[in-house]
Each structure stands twice: as C-alpha cells, then as structure tokens.
Design brief:
The relative contact order is 0.13. This protein has three helices and no strands. It has one domain: Histone, subunit A (Orthogonal Bundle), CATH 1.10.20.10. The chain has helices spanning 6-17, 23-50, 58-67.
Length: 68
C-alpha cells in the first residue's frame, strides 16, 4: 500500500486534467509514483555516497532524474 495521501494524488490528477478521478485511478498512480520515487531516491543515495556525503541533496536528485 502506498504512503502517499490519496487526496493529494486526486488533486494532482484533477489539476492536470480538469476531470473527476476514481479512487482506484488515484491509488494506481500513487503506487506508481511511490515506486518511481524510491528508484530515484536510491540512485540519488548512490550519488551522495560517491561524493562522500551521508546526506542526499537536491543535486543528487537532479542527477538521478537525468540518469533515467
């Protein structure tokens, strides 16, 4: 089960489409976004470790996004 709030996912979909969203659609997007976020975070952690840091920075996230 996703940790992202369904209300936030619902707002994202409605804001981008202007139409109503089923709960199952919000859940499905929530699962995908969490999985994708975890992959990005893991790659960012690799960049952070390579730089000799214990903290993931915004630059690490940007690099992880570019790598995809």
């Amino acid at each position: 089960m996703s940790e992202l709030p369904l209300a936030a996912i619902d707002r994202i979909i409605r804001k981008s489409t202007g139409i109503r969203v089923s709960e199952s659609a919000a859940k499905e997007l929530s699962v995908f976004l969490e999985e994708e976020g975890m992959r990005i975070a893991q790659q960012a952690a690799v960049f952070s470790k390579h730089a000799g840091r214990k903290t993931v920075t915004d630059e690490d996230i940007r690099l992880a996004l570019k790598k995809q």
